[in-house]
Structure formats: structure tokens, C-alpha cells
Amino acid sequence: MSASRQWEALSPALTPWLLETVRTLGYANMTPVQASTIPLFCSNKDVVVEAVTGSGKTISFLIPAIEIILRAGSIPRGRVGGIIVAPTRELASQIYAVLNSVLEFQPTEPTESTILKAQLLIGGSATVASDVQKFLTDTPQIIVGTPGRLLEFLGSPHVQSSSLEVLVLDEADRLLDLGFDKTISGILRLLPKQRRTGLFSATVTSAVGELVRVGLRNPVKIVVKVGDGEREQKVPTTLSISYSVLSPDSKIPSLIHKINTLKYKKAIVYFPTCASVVYFYTLLTSILPKLQSSKSADAQVFSLHGKLPQGPRTKTLNSFINTMKKSVLLTTDVAARGLDIPEVDVVIQIDPPYEANMFLHRAGRAARAGRYGEGYLFLSKGREEGYVDLMEVKKVRMHEAHEIELSGLKTEFYKCLRGWILDSREKHDMAVKAYVSYVRFYTKHTMTSIFRMNEFDFVGFGRAFGLLRLPSMPELKSAPNIPENGWLTNDIDLDAYRYKDPQRELARQEELTDRAAKAAAKQGPPKAANKSWSEQSERRERRDHRREKKRTKRESKAAVIENDESSSDNEEMEEDWKTLIADRKKKRKANVSEMAFDL
Ligand SMILES: Nc1ncnc2c1ncn2[C@@H]1O[C@H](COP(=O)(O)OP(=O)(O)OP(=O)(O)O)[C@@H](O)[C@H]1O
């Protein structure tokens, strides 16, 4: 161990109780990023720090932040001395917990009023007003929060931030990305320029460079490398990453195979959208027990995504962290950055993420602080295989996984899936939502040379999601080999395919009756009565009918697959299509960043 990695190297610059605390917390020596960052950040330098996931960046900004505030002397009551910003509620809560575990050890002497306190500010729980009230009552000097809530809080006339000494942006590249940048600029405008600022991430991007230009003074860039020259890499050395090239229908069976056979305490599985997490969580919790081999211990499955209300979101994460059972968390990128759950030893990515850096953050939930971990990536056959080379350029190396014999499991899985989906119409609706969100995710991929929509296997994924019929969506318009009317099955009696929820089922039945009545009205009087009509009136009738048809077609502009109007089955499912189209239109109005953050 080099001398510079020993905590003593920071003495006497660091307040003695802080030095004792880090050792009490079990950190025998500094990690490389701590050894490089703490002395500089403490010595009044602004810092931009890049170091791999799980390398101990949290302590490397918390210790200096506390030290800087302590040195500044007592911060007047009701004034903010330090702010730490994180992009997600989970990460902010985690940083707040680590901060409190350090502050717990501060001496209570000489006076109670000098004791440092922290407050957590995140959306989804208390109101801003109650946050402000708590701030005025507790008078904390350090605030940890997510950008939106923080901006509202700092905007309150009761909150004074002119005494701010130190600002930290954790996952800085994410915070300066589209979507957060305006909020962060708003926060910066409310803060004094005379302060220390630290930006931290495993992936420092050009967005961070922007902030360096506008918001930091003479910053020092600290890059902690793993490996040298040719061998340099952007992931921890203890992380082994492999990839499998799979057909759409092999992805979920492969996931099940891994859940059942890999050795792990906790595993995290990343899906691209909230709707996919909801769908595959519901599906897998129902069918996994049937597909588990007798040898494998049952894994407890959890789901976490950004559309869950805050209560269940926190509860799920805590349950996943605290369970003693073998467990699997199905999630989105909401849990990709910063989360430190030491027992996670496997990370599976069902698809490469929306942008390349996210891959590192996801994979980095395993192999933290020197522990061994495994990452698995599923790629679709074809151009997606180019992702491996692209990541190699980005200094992330992976090897091809051994092929697994899946045929038996696949047959079993699709049998279970079909039985499960036919059990109620709600399940098909869920599958459609997941599929649509998946296609939409794919269209928005940033690496368009690899993730090409014109090579997307709409039918293969439709089957893999268990769909009976492809939803009508513009993306299908120019797609080849789409079966007639989007049907992926021909042996379903849709009239008998019911919702479990009686109210939804009643609404469907009413809709059916309504449609039947409309269809009958459209057909006009019976043929016999028409016999006496003049040729002219018959022509007019045909023309009106054509116009009516055109009008209906215009109204469902986005409907791509032509519908056979004689088929009541088709008409019945058309409503689902229209809802999806309306949803899509609404979403299309939202900007790209919102889509990217649909976590
Ligand atoms: N000096 C140390 N010695 C041993 N373990 C440490 C030390 N400092 C931090 N750790 C542990 O390392 C783990 C990872 O730390 P941390 O969460 O700060 O990583 P990070 O670099 O911020 O990762 P990410 O980029 O994923 O956010 C934590 O469990 C933490 O307790």
C-alpha cells in the first residue's frame, strides 16, 4: 500500500474526528480516487473527477464537503453551507445516509449549535413547504437533493443560500444532460459564485466541460485510470462482462436460464422502459416458479421504475437491499447510476441502453469496491453485434458467452406465456404497452448506425412479448413481412377473450354492441328495399359510403395496417390501437429528453 493511500497522509489538514470516522467506518485506506481528490478539494480547488464505478467517489466528496464547511466556521442559522445534488431520489437518499453515518461521529462539544446537520430534499414525498419548514426548524447546514425539488426549495424567500461554501454535483454528466440542464442552471443562479464546486462521475462528458467553462474556477481534472496504455479500461478490473447474440424469442428464456442457474446473492436486470419492467415483472413472478429447475433456489423478484409512486419505490429498493434471500431486481436506468448495493454480483442488460455511457453505470452496480462481479449483455442478431466493437473503442471489453441450449426451456416458456396471457385481456394490454414502449425506445437509440429501425424484427419481438396481434403504430408502416392485419395468431376467439375486471369487461361489451349497431346502420336499408331505387341514388349511396369510409380512415390517421371492416374481431381490437396512437401522439409532443428519462 503506498503511503499516499493511508488516511494519515491527510493529517493534519483534515479535522481529526473526520480522520477517525473514516477508519471507524471500516475504510482502512483511501481508494485511489479518494487519495487524489480529498487533498485537492480540501485545499480550495474546484475539481472535476472521473473514476470507475464503485471506486469510492462518495467519500471523496463528502469528506471535503464537511471539512470545507467546518473550516468556514459556524454557518448562521437558516443558511445553507453545502449542497450535494444527485439525479435520482434513490441516489440522493443513499448519499444522505452515508453523510449521516459520518456526521454521527462528530463531537458534540464545544456547543450543540455548531453541530453539522443534513437534510434530504427529494420529490414525491413531503411538500416543498414542509421541506422549508423542516429546514427552518432543524437548521441543517448541508442539503442533499434531486434537482427539481432543490430548485423549488432554494427559490423560497425563507431559504438563504448566500453563505454556501461548497457545491457537489454527483453523476455530473447526467445532471448536465438535456432534461436537467435548465434546472441545474436555475440552481446555479441562486448560489453565490464564491464557493468550491466538485463534479463527479464515472463518465465525464463534454456537457461537464460546458459547466467547467461557466461555473467552476480553475478546476483541476482528476482522472483515475484502471490499467495503463493499451490495457486501460473504463470498468473495474474485477468486473467480467460477456455478451450473447440472440434471436428475439431467446431473450427472455435466456434471462430465465441465468436467473435459475447463475450463482449470485443479488442480481439486477435492466429493461429499457417502465412498461417492460411492469410487464415482465408481472409475467415472471407468475411463471418463474413453473420454470425453476429443482436444483435452483427460488429467486425473489422485485421491480423498480420511475413511474412507481415514491412509497412503493422506496419500499421495493429497501426490501431488495435487506432481503437475505437470493433476489433479482427488474428495473430501468432509474437504478443505473450510483446505487451502492454491495451484494449485487450479477448485472444483466436485456438490451444495450439508450446511450453508451449508461452501459458502464449499469454494469457497475456489480464489482464494487474490489469485489468480483459479472455483467451480461443481450444483443440481437445483425448490426447490434457491432456494439461490442463500439464499446471496445470506449475501453470496455467483453467476451462472447458460451452458447446455451435453450430449446426445452423455450418451449416451456412460450407454453406458459400463452396460457398466462390468455387468462385475461388485461395481460395482453400490458404486453402491448410494453411492446410499443420497446419499439419507441429502439427508435430513439442514440447509436443509430447500430440500432437501425429498418432492421428491427417487429414480428419476432411481437411474438417474444406474447402478442396475439401487433399494435397499429406508424413504425410498422414501412416494415416488411408484417402479417395481414397484424395478426400473430389465428386461433383466438376474441369475443371470448375477456377482461378480469368486471367494469372494463362491461365497457368492452357495451362498446361491442355499439359497434355492431353502427355497422348495421352503415349498411343501410336491406337490399330488397333498394331494388326500386334509381341507379343514380345507388351511385350516391356508394359515394357517401366511400366518403364515410375515407373519413373514418382519416380519423385514425396513424393506423397503419388496413383493417378488414367486415371482421368484428379486428374492429374490436382497433380501439386498443386507437388508444395507443393517441398515447403516442401525446408522447411525441414531449421532447426527446423526456423520452430518454422515461425510467
Ligand atoms: N476507502 C475505502 N475502502 C474500502 N471501501 C470503500 C472505501 N471508500 C468507499 N468504500 C466502499 O466502496 C463502495 C463504493 O463506493 P461509492 O458508492 O462511493 O462508489 P462510486 O465511485 O461513487 O460509484 P458509482 O460511480 O457507481 O456511483 C461503497 O460500498 C463504499 O462503502
Give the C-level CATH assignment of the largest domain. Answer: Alpha Beta
Mean pLDDT: 86
CATH topology of the largest domain: Rossmann fold
Number of helices: 22
The hetero molecules present are: adenosine-5'-triphosphate
Measured by DSSP, the beta-strand proportion falls in 5-15%
For the record, what is the CATH homologous superfamily label of the largest domain?
P-loop containing nucleotide triphosphate hydrolases
CA-atom Rg in angstroms: 29 Å
Shape: globular
Give the helix level as a range of percent: 40-55%
Based on the structure given, which CATH architecture of the largest domain is correct?
3-Layer(aba) Sandwich
Main β sheet profile: 7 strands, parallel
Low-pLDDT ranges: 528-537, 554-599
Structural class: alpha/beta
Protein name: P-loop containing nucleoside triphosphate hydrolase protein
Organism: Lipomyces orientalis
Keywords: Hydrolase
Commentary on this structure:
- This protein has 599 residues and is α/β, with parallel strands linked by helices.
- The chain folds into four domains: 3-224, Rossmann fold; 230-414, Rossmann fold (3-Layer(aba) Sandwich), CATH 3.40.50; 428-529, no CATH class; 565-599.
- 45% of the residues lie in helices and 12% in strands.
- It is built from 22 helices and 14 strands.
- The protein has a seven-stranded parallel beta sheet with strand order 3-4-2-5-6-1-7, with helices on both faces. It has a seven-stranded parallel beta sheet with strand order 10-11-9-12-13-8-14, sandwiched between helices.
- Residues 528-537 and 554-599 have low confidence and may be disordered.
- Bound molecules: adenosine-5'-triphosphate.
- Adenosine-5'-triphosphate binds at residues 27, 30-31, 34, 51, 53-59, 202, 338, 340, 342, 364, 368-369.
- Adenosine-5'-triphosphate (ATP) is lined by residues 27, 30-31, 34, 51, 53-59, 202, 338, 340, 342, 364, 368-369.
- It comes from Lipomyces orientalis.
- This is P-loop containing nucleoside triphosphate hydrolase protein.
- Keywords: Hydrolase.
